[in-house]
Amino acid sequence: MNALRVAVFGVTGRMGHCLVRAIAESPEFRLVGALAAPGVPELGRDAGEAVGLGRRFDVPVVADRSAAVAGAEVVVDFTLAAAMPANLEACVAHGCGLVLGTTGLEPPHHAALDAAAARIPLIQAANTSLGVNLLAKLVRQAAAALPPGYDIEIVEAHHRHKVDAPSGTALKLGESAAAGRGGTLAELSAGVRGREPGARAEGGIGFAVVRGGDIVGDHTVIYAGPGERIELAHRAHDRMTFAWGALRAARWLAGRKPGRYTMDNVLGLA
Question: Is 162 in the active site?
Answer without folding.
Answer: yes
